[in-house]
Amino acid sequence: APPRYTNFEQCRCTAEHFGQPPDQCGPCPHNCICANGGKELTWKKGYYPVIDGDQMIMAIPCLDATQSATDCNPTGNCTALWHNTKILDLSRTCQLCRPGTTGRLCSQCLCDAELCKFRGTTQTSGCLTCTASTIMWVIIVCCAVVGVAFIAALLYFARWHSKRFGQLKKLIKLITDSGTLKVFLIYVQTTASLNAAWPDWLVHSGVLSAMKVSNVSTTGIGIECLFPPLSDPVYNLMAFLLIIPSVFVLLIIVTGLRAVWETAMKSYRQWKSRELSLNRPPSAHLPKVSRRQTPLEWATAMFLYALYFLFFELANRSLEVFNCPKEPATDVGYMETLPWVACSVNNPTWRALLTMSAVSLVVYVAGIPLLIGSLLLIYRKHLSDVRVRMWLGNFYYCYKPSVIWFEMAIIARRLGLAILISVLPSLSPIRISMVVVVLVVALLLHCYLKPFVSRQDNILEGVSIATVIVTFIFQMSYTTKNVILRVNAL
Q1: Structure pTM?
Q2: Arithmetic mean of pLDDT over the chain
Protein backbone atom coordinates (compact mmCIF):
# COMPACT_ATOMS: atom_id res chain seq x y z
CA ALA A 1 0.00 0.00 0.00
CA PRO A 2 1.21 3.48 -0.76
CA PRO A 3 2.49 5.48 2.21
CA ARG A 4 -0.12 7.59 3.99
CA TYR A 5 0.58 10.93 5.66
CA THR A 6 -0.64 10.98 9.25
CA ASN A 7 0.79 14.32 10.36
CA PHE A 8 2.22 13.81 13.88
CA GLU A 9 -0.50 11.54 15.22
CA GLN A 10 1.88 8.61 15.59
CA CYS A 11 4.63 10.68 17.21
CA ARG A 12 5.31 10.68 20.90
CA CYS A 13 6.92 13.09 23.32
CA THR A 14 10.14 12.08 25.02
CA ALA A 15 10.23 10.78 28.57
CA GLU A 16 9.08 13.14 31.34
CA HIS A 17 7.11 15.23 28.86
CA PHE A 18 3.41 15.54 28.17
CA GLY A 19 1.55 16.76 25.10
CA GLN A 20 1.57 16.39 21.33
CA PRO A 21 4.52 16.72 18.91
CA PRO A 22 5.91 18.66 17.25
CA ASP A 23 5.64 21.84 19.32
CA GLN A 24 3.24 21.01 22.16
CA CYS A 25 5.42 18.72 24.24
CA GLY A 26 6.01 20.30 27.64
CA PRO A 27 7.62 19.15 30.87
CA CYS A 28 5.56 16.75 32.91
CA PRO A 29 3.55 18.76 35.46
CA HIS A 30 4.82 18.80 39.02
CA ASN A 31 3.74 15.82 41.16
CA CYS A 32 2.47 14.01 38.05
CA ILE A 33 3.64 10.95 36.13
CA CYS A 34 3.66 11.04 32.31
CA ALA A 35 3.36 7.82 30.33
CA ASN A 36 2.49 6.44 26.90
CA GLY A 37 4.71 8.93 25.09
CA GLY A 38 3.14 11.92 26.84
CA LYS A 39 -0.43 10.90 26.00
CA GLU A 40 -1.36 9.90 29.53
CA LEU A 41 -0.89 11.78 32.75
CA THR A 42 -1.51 10.46 36.25
CA TRP A 43 -0.98 11.94 39.69
CA LYS A 44 -0.36 10.53 43.10
CA LYS A 45 -2.87 9.36 45.60
CA GLY A 46 -3.81 12.21 47.90
CA TYR A 47 -3.27 14.94 45.26
CA TYR A 48 -5.68 17.18 43.41
CA PRO A 49 -5.17 18.47 39.81
CA VAL A 50 -4.74 22.18 39.11
CA ILE A 51 -6.26 22.84 35.69
CA ASP A 52 -6.09 26.23 34.00
CA GLY A 53 -8.54 26.21 31.12
CA ASP A 54 -7.67 23.03 29.20
CA GLN A 55 -4.16 22.68 30.54
CA MET A 56 -3.02 20.53 33.42
CA ILE A 57 -0.69 22.77 35.42
CA MET A 58 0.29 20.58 38.36
CA ALA A 59 -1.08 18.43 41.17
CA ILE A 60 -1.09 19.74 44.73
CA PRO A 61 -1.42 17.76 47.96
CA CYS A 62 -4.77 17.72 49.68
CA LEU A 63 -5.23 18.68 53.30
CA ASP A 64 -4.43 15.18 54.49
CA ALA A 65 -2.03 14.13 51.77
CA THR A 66 0.53 12.77 54.23
CA GLN A 67 -1.96 10.51 55.99
CA SER A 68 -2.94 7.01 55.03
CA ALA A 69 -6.54 7.99 54.25
CA THR A 70 -7.27 10.87 51.91
CA ASP A 71 -10.26 12.48 50.24
CA CYS A 72 -8.39 13.26 46.99
CA ASN A 73 -7.82 10.52 44.40
CA PRO A 74 -8.34 7.92 47.16
CA THR A 75 -7.79 4.93 44.88
CA GLY A 76 -4.91 6.48 42.92
CA ASN A 77 -6.45 5.58 39.53
CA CYS A 78 -7.01 9.04 37.98
CA THR A 79 -5.68 9.59 34.46
CA ALA A 80 -5.86 12.57 32.09
CA LEU A 81 -5.54 11.95 28.35
CA TRP A 82 -4.14 14.28 25.69
CA HIS A 83 -6.35 14.72 22.64
CA ASN A 84 -6.56 17.41 19.96
CA THR A 85 -4.19 19.85 21.72
CA LYS A 86 -6.06 19.70 25.02
CA ILE A 87 -6.71 17.40 27.94
CA LEU A 88 -9.63 15.12 27.35
CA ASP A 89 -12.06 14.35 30.14
CA LEU A 90 -10.67 12.32 32.99
CA SER A 91 -10.73 8.56 32.64
CA ARG A 92 -14.03 6.92 33.46
CA THR A 93 -12.48 4.98 36.33
CA CYS A 94 -11.12 8.13 37.98
CA GLN A 95 -12.45 8.77 41.45
CA LEU A 96 -11.36 12.37 41.87
CA CYS A 97 -12.80 12.72 45.39
CA ARG A 98 -13.92 10.34 48.06
CA PRO A 99 -17.71 9.78 48.03
CA GLY A 100 -19.43 12.54 49.97
CA THR A 101 -16.82 15.18 49.14
CA THR A 102 -16.51 17.59 46.24
CA GLY A 103 -14.95 20.90 45.22
CA ARG A 104 -11.37 22.06 45.17
CA LEU A 105 -9.07 19.75 47.14
CA CYS A 106 -12.21 17.68 47.84
CA SER A 107 -12.64 19.98 50.84
CA GLN A 108 -16.39 20.55 50.52
CA CYS A 109 -18.84 18.02 51.88
CA LEU A 110 -21.93 17.19 49.90
CA CYS A 111 -25.14 18.12 51.65
CA ASP A 112 -27.94 15.82 50.65
CA ALA A 113 -30.09 13.13 52.20
CA GLU A 114 -27.08 10.96 53.01
CA LEU A 115 -24.12 13.22 53.73
CA CYS A 116 -23.98 16.72 55.11
CA LYS A 117 -21.37 18.50 57.17
CA PHE A 118 -19.83 21.95 57.22
CA ARG A 119 -16.04 21.71 57.11
CA GLY A 120 -14.87 24.58 59.25
CA THR A 121 -11.11 24.08 59.56
CA THR A 122 -8.31 22.77 57.40
CA GLN A 123 -7.64 20.02 59.92
CA THR A 124 -11.15 18.62 59.68
CA SER A 125 -11.47 15.63 57.36
CA GLY A 126 -14.29 13.32 56.52
CA CYS A 127 -17.99 14.04 56.25
CA LEU A 128 -20.64 13.12 58.74
CA THR A 129 -23.35 10.68 57.76
CA CYS A 130 -26.71 12.25 58.42
CA THR A 131 -28.29 8.96 59.39
CA ALA A 132 -26.81 9.80 62.79
CA SER A 133 -29.14 12.79 63.06
CA THR A 134 -31.45 10.76 65.29
CA ILE A 135 -28.62 10.73 67.82
CA MET A 136 -28.50 14.52 67.61
CA TRP A 137 -32.20 14.71 68.40
CA VAL A 138 -31.68 12.46 71.40
CA ILE A 139 -28.85 14.71 72.59
CA ILE A 140 -30.97 17.84 72.14
CA VAL A 141 -33.92 16.31 73.98
CA CYS A 142 -31.65 15.12 76.80
CA CYS A 143 -30.08 18.57 77.11
CA ALA A 144 -33.54 20.14 77.20
CA VAL A 145 -34.69 17.70 79.88
CA VAL A 146 -31.56 18.36 81.96
CA GLY A 147 -32.05 22.11 81.57
CA VAL A 148 -35.67 21.97 82.64
CA ALA A 149 -34.80 19.68 85.56
CA PHE A 150 -32.03 22.09 86.66
CA ILE A 151 -34.39 25.07 86.59
CA ALA A 152 -37.04 23.09 88.46
CA ALA A 153 -34.49 22.10 91.10
CA LEU A 154 -33.46 25.72 91.58
CA LEU A 155 -37.07 26.78 91.99
CA TYR A 156 -37.69 23.93 94.45
CA PHE A 157 -34.70 24.82 96.62
CA ALA A 158 -35.51 28.53 96.38
CA ARG A 159 -39.05 27.93 97.66
CA TRP A 160 -38.78 25.10 100.17
CA HIS A 161 -35.05 24.95 101.04
CA SER A 162 -34.04 28.57 101.11
CA LYS A 163 -31.04 27.88 103.37
CA ARG A 164 -29.49 25.38 100.94
CA PHE A 165 -30.35 27.66 98.04
CA GLY A 166 -28.52 30.47 99.81
CA GLN A 167 -25.49 28.23 100.26
CA LEU A 168 -25.56 27.34 96.57
CA LYS A 169 -25.73 31.01 95.63
CA LYS A 170 -22.76 31.76 97.90
CA LEU A 171 -20.76 28.97 96.22
CA ILE A 172 -21.57 30.28 92.75
CA LYS A 173 -20.70 33.82 93.84
CA LEU A 174 -17.40 32.60 95.29
CA ILE A 175 -16.46 30.97 91.97
CA THR A 176 -17.48 33.96 89.84
CA ASP A 177 -15.80 36.51 92.12
CA SER A 178 -12.52 34.61 91.91
CA GLY A 179 -10.56 34.23 88.67
CA THR A 180 -10.91 30.43 88.56
CA LEU A 181 -13.78 30.35 86.09
CA LYS A 182 -12.12 32.95 83.88
CA VAL A 183 -8.76 31.16 83.84
CA PHE A 184 -10.43 27.84 83.00
CA LEU A 185 -12.54 29.37 80.23
CA ILE A 186 -9.57 31.09 78.55
CA TYR A 187 -7.45 27.95 78.81
CA VAL A 188 -10.09 25.74 77.20
CA GLN A 189 -10.80 28.22 74.38
CA THR A 190 -7.11 28.73 73.62
CA THR A 191 -6.34 25.01 73.70
CA ALA A 192 -9.27 24.22 71.39
CA SER A 193 -8.02 26.76 68.81
CA LEU A 194 -4.28 26.06 68.96
CA ASN A 195 -4.31 22.27 69.28
CA ALA A 196 -6.05 21.42 66.01
CA ALA A 197 -3.06 19.95 64.15
CA TRP A 198 -2.82 16.73 66.11
CA PRO A 199 -3.82 13.46 64.36
CA ASP A 200 -7.51 13.17 63.54
CA TRP A 201 -8.11 10.45 66.12
CA LEU A 202 -6.90 12.85 68.84
CA VAL A 203 -8.52 16.01 67.45
CA HIS A 204 -11.88 14.27 67.28
CA SER A 205 -11.49 12.58 70.63
CA GLY A 206 -13.95 13.32 73.39
CA VAL A 207 -11.72 15.84 75.21
CA LEU A 208 -10.72 18.09 72.30
CA SER A 209 -14.17 17.86 70.73
CA ALA A 210 -15.73 18.96 74.01
CA MET A 211 -13.28 21.86 74.18
CA LYS A 212 -14.57 23.15 70.84
CA VAL A 213 -17.91 23.80 72.49
CA SER A 214 -16.23 26.51 74.57
CA ASN A 215 -15.80 28.46 71.32
CA VAL A 216 -19.42 27.78 70.33
CA SER A 217 -18.12 25.60 67.50
CA THR A 218 -20.65 23.24 65.93
CA THR A 219 -18.17 21.55 63.58
CA GLY A 220 -18.39 17.79 63.76
CA ILE A 221 -21.44 17.46 66.01
CA GLY A 222 -23.93 16.98 63.17
CA ILE A 223 -26.08 20.05 63.67
CA GLU A 224 -25.96 20.64 59.90
CA CYS A 225 -27.94 17.44 59.48
CA LEU A 226 -30.77 19.00 61.46
CA PHE A 227 -30.38 22.45 59.91
CA PRO A 228 -28.97 21.95 56.38
CA PRO A 229 -28.63 25.72 55.63
CA LEU A 230 -25.82 25.80 58.20
CA SER A 231 -23.70 23.76 55.78
CA ASP A 232 -23.50 26.92 53.67
CA PRO A 233 -20.58 29.01 55.01
CA VAL A 234 -22.52 32.26 54.49
CA TYR A 235 -25.51 31.15 56.58
CA ASN A 236 -23.17 29.50 59.08
CA LEU A 237 -21.28 32.74 59.71
CA MET A 238 -24.52 34.74 59.77
CA ALA A 239 -26.00 32.42 62.41
CA PHE A 240 -22.86 32.75 64.54
CA LEU A 241 -22.83 36.55 64.34
CA LEU A 242 -26.50 36.63 65.36
CA ILE A 243 -25.76 34.86 68.66
CA ILE A 244 -25.05 38.15 70.43
CA PRO A 245 -28.36 39.80 69.38
CA SER A 246 -30.16 36.58 70.30
CA VAL A 247 -28.58 36.59 73.76
CA PHE A 248 -29.59 40.24 74.17
CA VAL A 249 -33.23 39.50 73.32
CA LEU A 250 -33.25 36.40 75.54
CA LEU A 251 -31.88 38.40 78.48
CA ILE A 252 -34.57 41.04 78.02
CA ILE A 253 -37.26 38.34 78.20
CA VAL A 254 -35.68 36.60 81.19
CA THR A 255 -35.14 39.92 82.98
CA GLY A 256 -38.80 40.83 82.51
CA LEU A 257 -39.94 37.46 83.83
CA ARG A 258 -37.53 37.69 86.75
CA ALA A 259 -38.74 41.20 87.61
CA VAL A 260 -42.34 40.00 87.64
CA TRP A 261 -41.41 36.99 89.78
CA GLU A 262 -39.46 39.05 92.30
CA THR A 263 -42.24 41.64 92.52
CA ALA A 264 -44.76 38.91 93.21
CA MET A 265 -42.51 37.26 95.82
CA LYS A 266 -41.86 40.63 97.48
CA SER A 267 -45.60 41.28 97.76
CA TYR A 268 -46.09 37.79 99.17
CA ARG A 269 -43.33 38.26 101.77
CA GLN A 270 -44.74 41.65 102.79
CA TRP A 271 -48.19 40.14 103.23
CA LYS A 272 -46.73 37.23 105.19
CA SER A 273 -44.70 39.51 107.44
CA ARG A 274 -47.73 41.67 108.24
CA GLU A 275 -49.68 38.55 109.13
CA LEU A 276 -46.91 37.30 111.42
CA SER A 277 -46.40 40.70 113.04
CA LEU A 278 -49.91 40.56 114.49
CA ASN A 279 -48.94 37.54 116.60
CA ARG A 280 -45.35 38.58 117.40
CA PRO A 281 -44.24 41.13 120.01
CA PRO A 282 -42.31 44.13 118.61
CA SER A 283 -38.53 43.79 118.51
CA ALA A 284 -35.93 46.50 118.66
CA HIS A 285 -33.57 44.51 116.41
CA LEU A 286 -34.41 44.35 112.73
CA PRO A 287 -32.89 41.56 110.60
CA LYS A 288 -29.89 42.59 108.49
CA VAL A 289 -30.68 42.55 104.80
CA SER A 290 -27.75 42.39 102.35
CA ARG A 291 -27.81 44.21 99.01
CA ARG A 292 -29.26 41.94 96.33
CA GLN A 293 -28.57 42.07 92.60
CA THR A 294 -31.45 43.65 90.72
CA PRO A 295 -32.77 42.00 87.54
CA LEU A 296 -31.28 44.79 85.42
CA GLU A 297 -27.87 44.45 87.07
CA TRP A 298 -27.99 40.69 86.56
CA ALA A 299 -28.92 41.05 82.88
CA THR A 300 -26.16 43.61 82.30
CA ALA A 301 -23.57 41.38 83.97
CA MET A 302 -24.70 38.36 81.94
CA PHE A 303 -24.62 40.26 78.64
CA LEU A 304 -21.14 41.66 79.29
CA TYR A 305 -19.90 38.18 80.21
CA ALA A 306 -21.47 36.74 77.05
CA LEU A 307 -19.54 39.33 75.02
CA TYR A 308 -16.36 38.37 76.83
CA PHE A 309 -17.07 34.65 76.39
CA LEU A 310 -17.71 34.92 72.62
CA PHE A 311 -15.02 37.51 71.85
CA PHE A 312 -12.24 35.04 70.99
CA GLU A 313 -14.24 33.02 68.47
CA LEU A 314 -15.86 36.16 67.05
CA ALA A 315 -12.37 37.45 66.30
CA ASN A 316 -11.33 34.12 64.76
CA ARG A 317 -14.40 33.82 62.54
CA SER A 318 -14.22 37.48 61.46
CA LEU A 319 -10.53 37.39 60.54
CA GLU A 320 -10.30 34.03 58.77
CA VAL A 321 -11.83 35.49 55.60
CA PHE A 322 -8.55 37.35 55.03
CA ASN A 323 -6.42 34.18 55.18
CA CYS A 324 -6.18 33.39 51.47
CA PRO A 325 -3.01 31.48 50.48
CA LYS A 326 -2.43 31.62 46.75
CA GLU A 327 -2.57 28.45 44.71
CA PRO A 328 0.73 27.63 43.01
CA ALA A 329 0.98 28.40 39.30
CA THR A 330 -2.49 29.94 38.98
CA ASP A 331 -1.79 32.62 41.63
CA VAL A 332 -5.43 32.48 42.74
CA GLY A 333 -6.11 32.87 46.46
CA TYR A 334 -8.43 30.49 48.32
CA MET A 335 -9.59 30.64 51.92
CA GLU A 336 -7.54 28.30 54.05
CA THR A 337 -10.51 27.34 56.23
CA LEU A 338 -12.81 26.95 53.19
CA PRO A 339 -10.45 25.75 50.44
CA TRP A 340 -13.17 25.71 47.77
CA VAL A 341 -13.95 29.43 48.21
CA ALA A 342 -11.87 31.70 45.95
CA CYS A 343 -10.94 35.02 47.52
CA SER A 344 -12.32 37.35 44.88
CA VAL A 345 -14.95 40.07 44.94
CA ASN A 346 -16.37 38.36 41.85
CA ASN A 347 -17.13 35.33 44.01
CA PRO A 348 -20.51 35.97 45.70
CA THR A 349 -19.74 33.60 48.58
CA TRP A 350 -16.47 35.28 49.52
CA ARG A 351 -17.98 38.73 48.97
CA ALA A 352 -20.80 37.93 51.41
CA LEU A 353 -18.34 36.54 53.96
CA LEU A 354 -16.15 39.61 53.57
CA THR A 355 -19.08 41.97 54.12
CA MET A 356 -20.24 40.22 57.28
CA SER A 357 -16.68 39.94 58.58
CA ALA A 358 -16.07 43.65 58.05
CA VAL A 359 -19.19 44.51 60.05
CA SER A 360 -18.20 42.05 62.77
CA LEU A 361 -14.69 43.51 62.99
CA VAL A 362 -16.09 46.97 63.67
CA VAL A 363 -18.99 46.00 65.94
CA TYR A 364 -17.57 43.02 67.83
CA VAL A 365 -13.79 42.67 67.46
CA ALA A 366 -13.12 46.39 67.99
CA GLY A 367 -16.31 47.21 69.88
CA ILE A 368 -16.09 44.66 72.71
CA PRO A 369 -12.59 45.66 73.97
CA LEU A 370 -13.53 49.33 73.56
CA LEU A 371 -16.73 48.83 75.57
CA ILE A 372 -15.08 46.94 78.44
CA GLY A 373 -12.10 49.31 78.54
CA SER A 374 -14.37 52.37 78.53
CA LEU A 375 -16.52 51.01 81.37
CA LEU A 376 -13.44 50.27 83.51
CA LEU A 377 -12.10 53.76 82.78
CA ILE A 378 -15.38 55.58 83.45
CA TYR A 379 -16.11 53.75 86.70
CA ARG A 380 -12.49 53.53 87.90
CA LYS A 381 -13.26 55.75 90.90
CA HIS A 382 -16.40 53.81 91.81
CA LEU A 383 -15.19 50.24 91.57
CA SER A 384 -15.61 49.76 95.31
CA ASP A 385 -19.28 50.72 95.05
CA VAL A 386 -21.40 47.61 95.51
CA ARG A 387 -23.83 48.86 92.85
CA VAL A 388 -21.04 48.92 90.25
CA ARG A 389 -19.66 45.59 91.38
CA MET A 390 -23.03 43.93 90.84
CA TRP A 391 -22.80 44.29 87.05
CA LEU A 392 -19.14 45.11 86.27
CA GLY A 393 -17.36 43.13 88.97
CA ASN A 394 -16.51 40.20 86.65
CA PHE A 395 -13.87 42.35 84.96
CA TYR A 396 -11.96 43.67 87.99
CA TYR A 397 -12.99 42.14 91.30
CA CYS A 398 -10.64 39.13 91.02
CA TYR A 399 -7.58 41.34 90.42
CA LYS A 400 -5.41 43.24 92.86
CA PRO A 401 -6.21 46.97 93.13
CA SER A 402 -2.78 47.84 91.69
CA VAL A 403 -3.48 45.92 88.44
CA ILE A 404 -7.16 46.61 88.03
CA TRP A 405 -6.48 47.07 84.31
CA PHE A 406 -5.19 43.52 83.80
CA GLU A 407 -8.40 42.39 82.11
CA MET A 408 -7.43 44.52 79.10
CA ALA A 409 -4.06 42.73 78.94
CA ILE A 410 -5.86 39.37 78.76
CA ILE A 411 -8.17 40.69 76.02
CA ALA A 412 -5.13 41.94 74.09
CA ARG A 413 -3.53 38.49 74.38
CA ARG A 414 -6.67 36.78 73.09
CA LEU A 415 -6.96 39.23 70.20
CA GLY A 416 -3.29 38.75 69.29
CA LEU A 417 -3.69 34.96 69.22
CA ALA A 418 -6.85 35.27 67.13
CA ILE A 419 -5.02 37.41 64.57
CA LEU A 420 -2.11 34.96 64.34
CA ILE A 421 -4.35 31.90 64.17
CA SER A 422 -6.84 33.24 61.63
CA VAL A 423 -4.89 35.62 59.36
CA LEU A 424 -1.53 33.90 58.87
CA PRO A 425 -1.32 30.64 56.87
CA SER A 426 -0.94 27.50 58.93
CA LEU A 427 2.38 26.70 57.19
CA SER A 428 3.87 30.09 58.04
CA PRO A 429 6.89 29.90 60.38
CA ILE A 430 6.01 33.43 61.48
CA ARG A 431 2.67 32.21 62.78
CA ILE A 432 4.20 29.40 64.81
CA SER A 433 6.98 31.53 66.29
CA MET A 434 4.75 34.52 67.07
CA VAL A 435 2.18 32.34 68.86
CA VAL A 436 4.96 31.08 71.13
CA VAL A 437 6.23 34.65 71.64
CA VAL A 438 2.76 35.92 72.64
CA LEU A 439 2.26 33.08 75.10
CA VAL A 440 5.74 33.43 76.62
CA VAL A 441 5.29 37.20 77.05
CA ALA A 442 1.90 36.55 78.69
CA LEU A 443 3.50 34.01 81.07
CA LEU A 444 6.37 36.36 82.00
CA LEU A 445 3.96 39.26 82.58
CA HIS A 446 1.76 37.06 84.74
CA CYS A 447 4.72 35.78 86.81
CA TYR A 448 5.96 39.33 87.32
CA LEU A 449 2.64 40.92 88.34
CA LYS A 450 0.76 37.99 89.92
CA PRO A 451 -2.43 39.95 89.20
CA PHE A 452 -5.06 37.77 90.90
CA VAL A 453 -6.06 38.35 94.50
CA SER A 454 -6.19 34.60 95.11
CA ARG A 455 -2.88 32.74 95.23
CA GLN A 456 -4.58 29.67 93.81
CA ASP A 457 -5.75 31.65 90.77
CA ASN A 458 -2.22 32.93 90.14
CA ILE A 459 -0.87 29.38 90.23
CA LEU A 460 -3.68 28.10 88.02
CA GLU A 461 -3.15 30.83 85.41
CA GLY A 462 0.60 30.22 85.29
CA VAL A 463 0.14 26.46 84.90
CA SER A 464 -2.52 26.92 82.19
CA ILE A 465 -0.35 29.24 80.06
CA ALA A 466 2.67 26.96 80.46
CA THR A 467 0.56 23.94 79.49
CA VAL A 468 -0.67 25.68 76.33
CA ILE A 469 2.92 26.55 75.38
CA VAL A 470 4.19 23.00 75.92
CA THR A 471 1.32 21.30 74.07
CA PHE A 472 1.59 23.75 71.17
CA ILE A 473 5.34 23.19 70.79
CA PHE A 474 4.95 19.40 70.95
CA GLN A 475 2.13 19.60 68.42
CA MET A 476 4.26 21.65 66.02
CA SER A 477 7.16 19.23 66.46
CA TYR A 478 4.85 16.33 65.65
CA THR A 479 3.55 17.97 62.48
CA THR A 480 6.93 19.28 61.25
CA LYS A 481 7.43 16.31 58.95
CA ASN A 482 4.01 16.73 57.38
CA VAL A 483 4.55 20.47 56.96
CA ILE A 484 7.90 19.91 55.25
CA LEU A 485 6.37 17.35 52.90
CA ARG A 486 3.58 19.76 51.95
CA VAL A 487 5.97 22.68 51.43
CA ASN A 488 8.24 20.56 49.23
CA ALA A 489 5.22 19.37 47.25
CA LEU A 490 4.15 22.96 46.62
Answers
A1: 0.79
A2: 77
